[in-house]
Amino acid sequence: MTDAHSAPKPSDDVHEWFGLSYGTHAVLPRVLMQSMPAAWQQQFVALMVQFEDAFDHVEQPSAYSVQAASQHLVNELLPDQLNSIGYTVDERDYDQMPEGLSVRAIAEWEDDHPTHYYDADGNEVDGSSYVYVPAPDPLPSYSRGRTYIEPRLSGCAHCPDGHAAPTSRPWGVYVADERDGDGQPTYLRVGPSDGAHVAQSDADWLWQLIRDSEQLQANARRWSAVSDTIERAYRKGYDVDPHELRDQLGDLWQGGDE
Predict the structure, then answer these.
(1) CA gap 24, 60 in Å, rounded
(2) In this predicted structure, which of 80-84, 172-176, 178-182, 235-239 has the lowest mean pLDDT?
(3) In terms of DSSP bridges, do strands 88-90 and 116-118 run parallel, antiparallel, or are they unpaired?
C-alpha cells in the first residue's frame, strides 16, 4: 500500500475543482478530449506524461472499470432500478398501522417502523445515501480517433495558457462602412485598439456589459419612481402604500406581500 502522509500540499486547486463532491477520480471521455483543439491536446498530453512520470514509483491499480450511470437517493429508486443494482427493500407494512391516528402519531409510527434497504451483498444501507444506477452512455465511440464533436469554447484555441481577459487591453469602437438603402450606417465595429485577436469570451463579455447596462438603467428608473412616490407621501403627510412600491420595483421588491 502506498505510504501517504500529510506534508504541505503545493496547492488546493485540484481539491477545489472537485467542489463539494466525494469523487476520488476524474473521468474524461476520450471522444471529447480528441475533439479539443490541437493546442489544448498537446498541452494536455504533455501534462499527462508529466503526471505519469511523477508517480511512476507509486503502486496503482492495473485498470479501472468505468460505467455510465445516473445518481439517485436509495429511497427514491423505482423497483426496476433497485433490481438493476441488486438492491432489495423491506418496506414498512401500512396494513399494520392502527387506524384513527393523528398526523403526529402517524409520523411517530413511521419512525418506529422504517423501511430497510439492502445492497447486493445483503448489507443494510441508509435510504438517504446515494447510489449509481447503470445507464446508457449518450456519447458516441471514439472510433479510433475519427469521431469529432465540435466543442463550444469560451476561451481561445490559439491561447493554450488562456485567452487574455478583455479588461486587460484597450478597446475601441467606430462606425462601419456598411450602409442601408438610405445610405445610413448600420453597424458598429468593436475591437481591441491594440490589434490583439479576439475570442468568443470577448463577445460574451461585451454582450454582458450591454445587458448589465440596460438592467442598471431600468433599475435606476424604477428606483427614481419609488423615490418620487416616497417624497410625495412625505410632503402630503400620508403613509406609503407598500403595494404601490412593489408594483414600481417589480423584481427588485424584497418585501413581503403585506
Answers:
(1) 14
(2) 235-239
(3) antiparallel
Q: Of 143, 156, 161, whose CA–CA distance to 204 is shortest?
A: 156
Residues 6+ apart with CB under 8 A from 181: none
* Coil, strand or helix at 174: strand
Q: What is the DSSP string of 181-234?
A: TTS-B--EEEEETT-----HHHHHHHHHHHHHHHHHHHHHHHHHHHHHHHHHHH
Q: What number is the average pLDDT over the span 120-147?
A: 94
Mean of pLDDT over the chain:
83
Q: Tell whether pTM > 0.70.
A: no
CB 155 within 8 A of CB 43: no
Contact 176, 185 (CB under 8 A): yes
